[in-house]
Structure formats: C-alpha cells, structure tokens
C-alpha cells in the first residue's frame, strides 16, 4: 500500500490529474467535463514529460561530447540519480518523508497565508531523499529522521514558492500558479539581478531584425540554428572513437545536426504540453481554492515559464552555459571540479532568461543566464564537502537543487550548534 501511495505521489501526471478531478468535482462540473478535464491534464503533463525526455536524450550525448572535447573530469550536479541510488538503504525514510511531507504541505496551505501546494512529484522525491541522506549522515535515523524530514519538506514546500511568487507574477502577469521547483530561489535571484542591470523596455521577444532575417524571430528556427552550431563545433574536438560510438556509424556532422534538431523538437513538444495541461488545471484548481484549501495555488515545475518568453528561454540557456563554463574553470582550483550540467543549465538557465527578460529585457535575460550558470555550479563546488556521497557508493555526482542544498546547509549548521557533525 505504501509503495502504491508513494508511486502515485512520485508520478506528477497522476497527482495533477487527481487534483484536476477534485477541483472539477468541487466546482460541480458534469461527469463529461470531469473526465475530459482530468484526462487532458494528464495528457498535457505527459506531453511535457516526453518533451523533457526528448531534450534530455539529446543533451546526454552532448555532455559526453563536451567532456571528451575539453578533457574535463569531475562531478556533475544531478539529483534524480542520487535519489535512486540510495533507495536500497534509505528507501523507507525517503518514502515516508515524501508522504508525510506532502500532508504537512497541505495542512500549512490550509491554516497559514502560504497557500502553495507543491505538485512537482520528482522534485518531492529527490528532496525527500536529500533529507534522508542529510539526517543519516548526522546519525539521525528511523522515526526521528522521518519526523524532522517531513516537517522540513512540508515547510519548504510552501516557503520557497512564497519567496518566488512576487517574481512569478512579473512573468505571468497573474497570481494563479506558483513556482514548484527546488532551484526557484536561484532562478528569481538571477532574474532580479538581470532586472537591476537591464532594461525591461527592450524585451527579447520584440527584437528588431532585418526583414531578410525575419525567420530568426521564430523561436524554434533560432534555437535550431544556434544549437546546430554548438553541436557541430563541439563535435570537431571530440575523440573520433567516441564520436563513432555515439553516432552509431552515422555521418558525424549529420548526427550533430540531428541531435540539435531533436533538442528543438523536445522544446516544441514540451511547450505544447505546458499550454494543454495549464489550460485545464488552472480553472480546475479554482474548485480546490474555493472548497478545500481556500486561496490555494498549485506550485508547478519549471517548464511552465518557457511559454511566456520562448526567445528569452533560448538566450538564458546559452548564457547559462557560458556562466557554467566559467564556474568549471574556477572550480579547477577548488577541492572538486564541477562539470557543466547541460541539463540543469538548460532547465534553470532557460527560466532565468524568462525571469531576467520580464524584469530587464533582453539584456536582463543575458545577465540572468550568466549569473545562474555561474552560481549554479559554484554553489555545488563550495557546498560539496558538507555531504559525502561515497558512503552510498556514489561517485561523479552531487546535488543539483539549490534550494535543497541551502536547506541541507542550514540543517548541518543547526546540528553543529548541538554538537552533531559528520
């Protein structure tokens, strides 16, 4: 039974479908409308996930190409692989923190002014695993770890979206959704810095280009060209043997271009999914707001923001990559080298571009991307000593979610005040 519950809570499409159904029932919609709204919400979110999977499938070989081209070794920021790797030893703690943390979240949304319900399932899972690891390394096990982890996860699930909401409103021009992502603080801080140094009158979405280059105003075309150049240039420096393995015998230039175009197709599928499930979920969530948790807002995953400024998404990612490369070079002088996490830099850098554009135009998007890329990896480099993952047989990976890292640092700091250290 526990595995079923955690399975549902770890599957965002089911969570959102259930939420949509509850909301539509609360609004006393017809059976036909409930079925339609529920399934379209699930289909839209699965479309979003499949778009993300397509993106990841094209970025994984690029990461290998990049490491080979520039002869770099070190750790990559990636949460989900870490969460999966510790389940053999911390599976029970992770599952119960996930379930009770969600309950604490709903209770807090009901009784406090923080009305956010965190609905990003895979991030709830990775955060619960992070809490289990942190307390395990502090010598806190069993029900004590579950109790503390659940309380912290529930509080964090309303606190971080609440901190991000003033900036979310600047992007969406409404107050209907929250930011349910454990890197939200770094995204909005980067966007805020971009806003201070940019000019919001010159939006990236309204760039003036000569008529003969008008096709560049189409986000997918611009992204396809830029990504093709990046993949092609990188492929020139990759070891021939590795390139042949990755391409499976296909012409290397053609392989690079196809991977770049596949990345763009993933973006298009993802954006279509976002539009579809938000179009169903947000109206349905009003039912929950009005009946069950008055004023509640769904805190959703980071891709929901890309559709508000697709060009700024591209700009944010590209300049996050630049910032990430700078951080990688600096981290060579630190105890651990942090390699560019292309996947993390895309998802967070793209959002930073959107937030930077909303507050500081195209210059804000550029600055926000650089700040995010650099900070995202330097935080990992500086915080790396606080948690030793080699205890679980994990090497080459470390935590990626900035908010979770901040929480882990605070826990360790408070623990040290009581004499609890590694």
Automatic annotation (TrEMBL):
<feature type="transmembrane region" description="Helical">
    <location>
        <begin position="250"/>
        <end position="271"/>
    </location>
</feature>
<keyword id="KW-0598">Phosphotransferase system</keyword>
<dbReference type="InterPro" id="IPR004703">
    <property type="entry name" value="PTS_sugar-sp_permease"/>
</dbReference>
<keyword id="KW-0812">Transmembrane</keyword>
<feature type="transmembrane region" description="Helical">
    <location>
        <begin position="304"/>
        <end position="330"/>
    </location>
</feature>
<feature type="transmembrane region" description="Helical">
    <location>
        <begin position="399"/>
        <end position="420"/>
    </location>
</feature>
<feature type="transmembrane region" description="Helical">
    <location>
        <begin position="116"/>
        <end position="135"/>
    </location>
</feature>
<keyword id="KW-0472">Membrane</keyword>
<comment type="function">
    <text>The phosphoenolpyruvate-dependent sugar phosphotransferase system (sugar PTS), a major carbohydrate active transport system, catalyzes the phosphorylation of incoming sugar substrates concomitantly with their translocation across the cell membrane. The enzyme II UlaABC PTS system is involved in ascorbate transport.</text>
</comment>
<keyword id="KW-0762">Sugar transport</keyword>
<feature type="transmembrane region" description="Helical">
    <location>
        <begin position="82"/>
        <end position="104"/>
    </location>
</feature>
<feature type="transmembrane region" description="Helical">
    <location>
        <begin position="336"/>
        <end position="358"/>
    </location>
</feature>
<feature type="transmembrane region" description="Helical">
    <location>
        <begin position="39"/>
        <end position="62"/>
    </location>
</feature>
<dbReference type="Pfam" id="PF03611">
    <property type="entry name" value="EIIC-GAT"/>
</dbReference>
<protein>
    <recommendedName>
        <fullName>Ascorbate-specific PTS system EIIC component</fullName>
    </recommendedName>
</protein>
<feature type="transmembrane region" description="Helical">
    <location>
        <begin position="221"/>
        <end position="238"/>
    </location>
</feature>
<keyword id="KW-1003">Cell membrane</keyword>
<comment type="subunit">
    <text>Homodimer.</text>
</comment>
<dbReference type="InterPro" id="IPR051562">
    <property type="entry name" value="Ascorbate-PTS_EIIC"/>
</dbReference>
<keyword id="KW-1133">Transmembrane helix</keyword>
<comment type="similarity">
    <text>Belongs to the UlaA family.</text>
</comment>
<feature type="transmembrane region" description="Helical">
    <location>
        <begin position="141"/>
        <end position="164"/>
    </location>
</feature>
<feature type="transmembrane region" description="Helical">
    <location>
        <begin position="6"/>
        <end position="27"/>
    </location>
</feature>
<keyword id="KW-0813">Transport</keyword>
<feature type="transmembrane region" description="Helical">
    <location>
        <begin position="365"/>
        <end position="387"/>
    </location>
</feature>
